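Anyone opening a protein record will find just a pair of labelled lines. The record below illustrates this layout.
***
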Amino acid sequence: MGLSSGLDFESRIYAKINAGELLKRELDKPSYQPEPIALGVITDAYQPVERNLRITRRVIEILSERVLEACAEAGATSASYYIVLRLPWEVAPLFKGWLAAHFPDRVDRVMGRARDMRGGKDYDSDFSKRMKGEEVYGPICSSSAFIRQRSSLA
């Protein structure tokens, strides 16, 4: 692409706006074999333009639909999954500000739950803890769901 690692990297964003459709086409191929997929391994989901383009959201929706379809085909009648709230250093103040602006009555409760999972801290970068937590809610996340979305497969 002929870009420099300096100013070009900081000032230009290239987006594959049809990523969701490309993914769907690949998943629909009879020859498709499941394997790990790396999604937004650095910053894709956090780029401001993602708010409008919704590329990452669409890819996650497609993957979720496929997982739920596979569960239903295997006989499941419902499914639950959780997403643990992660607040890395630079994200925590932004999230707290957004939460205070949009849900001021919930700030203490939400941040209290996040801290309950992190030994009293907003965030723990320890790889073995950051996606499952510890203390009160860690075991719950390991076995069922803390923050979850339920889907009926019937």
